[in-house]
């Protein structure tokens, strides 16, 4: 069982927007502005698309945006494209027991 | 731009120790800007952070694995390493090394290496 809770799957049509939630506790998501989001295509390594809740690394499309409210972080993908179909994982620093990093269980995005 | 590459045996016997090395290029492992991490992914499952290490040797281990994990840094070779002892089939996974730009934000990843635990 993952420390952070994500929906198992979401779907949307090309051009639409979708949002993936990531729910934790005050010891992780709610306690730090260190939430990250990763995109993973089959057989590939994860790719950082959002860091520190809402920042995009260089080269990442502005169609990807992140936010946080309380113990829940969210990833929004606007203008869905076929290549966005992938697994998405959230991650957060945590102070539970000892400082370390926890991930969500992952969300499979299907572009219809 | 950093590049990371995992290396090590792809097959480990139960109860033995899994050992992997990550070679970093395109930057110094002694940089104060980075921690260095190991993340694993069992087949068909999600990501699990094993732990991170700073160039000074300070470590931050996942509490669920802490009793079996040892990480180290070799600044002369620009490498960091993972040892996981007393492995079982549950440790079968793709193991990734990655750079942590701070706060557990892993920005550069190796391609991953599959380690199978089997006799």
Reconstruct the topology from this structure.
The complex is a heterodimer of chains A (112) and B (119).
Chain A: E1 9-12, E2 18-23, E3 35-40, E4 47-50, E5 64-69, E6 72-77, E7 86-94, E8 100-103, E9 107-111
Parallel strand pairs in A: 1-9
Antiparallel strand pairs in A: 2-6, 3-4, 3-7, 5-6, 7-8, 7-9
Chain B: E1 3-7, E2 11-12, E3 18-25, E4 35-41, E5 48-54, E6 59-61, E7 69-74, E8 79-84, E9 93-100, E10 106-109, E11 113-117
Parallel strand pairs in B: 2-11
Antiparallel strand pairs in B: 1-3, 3-8, 4-5, 4-9, 5-6, 7-8, 9-10, 9-11
- By secondary-structure content and strand pairing, the structural class of chain A works out as mainly beta
Oligomer: heterodimer
Number of helices of chain B: 0
The largest sheet of chain B, given as strand count, sense and whether it forms a barrel, is:
7 strands, mixed
List the secondary-structure elements of chain B in sequence, H or E: EEEEEEEEEEE
How many strand units of chain B? Answer: 11
Regions with little confidence, pLDDT below 50 for 5+ residues of chain A: none
Q: Tell me the distance between the termini of chain A.
A: 29 Å
In round numbers, the mean pLDDT of chain A is 95
Strand content of chain B: over 45%
Which percent bin holds the helix content of chain B? under 10%
- Which two protein chains have the largest interface (Cβ within 8 Å of the partner's Cβ), and how many residues from each? A-B, 28 and 26 residues
- Please tell me how large the radius of gyration of chain A is: 13 Å
| Class inferred from helices and paired strands of chain B | mainly beta
How many beta strands in the DSSP annotation of chain A? 9
Radius of gyration of CA atoms of chain B, rounded to a whole number: 13 Å
Coarse shape of chain A:
globular
**Helix fraction of chain A by DSSP (H/I, runs of at least 4):** under 10%
Overall pLDDT metric of chain B? 95
What's the overall geometry of chain B? globular
Amino-to-carboxy terminus distance of chain B: 39 Å
């Amino acid at each position: 069982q993952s420390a952070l809770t994500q929906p198992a799957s979401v779907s949307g049509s090309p051009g639409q927007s979708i949002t993936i939630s990531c729910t934790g506790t005050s010891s992780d998501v709610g306690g730090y502005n260190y939430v990250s989001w990763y995109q993973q295509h089959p057989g590939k390594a994860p790719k950082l698309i959002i860091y520190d809740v809402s920042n995009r690394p260089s080269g990442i499309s502005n169609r990807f945006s992140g936010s946080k409210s309380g113990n829940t972080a969210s990833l929004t993908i606007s203008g869905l494209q076929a290549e966005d179909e992938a697994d998405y994982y959230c991650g957060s620093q945590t102070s539970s027991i000892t400082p370390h990093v926890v991930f969500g269980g992952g969300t499979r995005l299907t572009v219809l | 731009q950093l590049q990371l590459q995992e290396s090590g045996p792809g097959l480990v016997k139960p109860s033995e120790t899994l050992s992997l090395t990550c070679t970093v290029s395109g930057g110094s492992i002694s940089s104060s800007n980075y921690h260095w991490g190991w993340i694993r992914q069992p087949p068909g499952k999600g990501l699990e952070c094993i732990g991170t290490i700073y160039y000074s040797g300070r470590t931050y281990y996942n509490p669920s694995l802490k009793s079996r994990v040892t990480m180290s840094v070799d600044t002369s070779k620009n490498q960091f390493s993972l040892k996981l002892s007393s492995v079982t089939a549950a440790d079968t996974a793709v193991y990734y090394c990655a750079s942590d730009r701070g706060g557990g934000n892993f920005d550069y990843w190796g391609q991953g290496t599959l380690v199978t635990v089997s006799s």
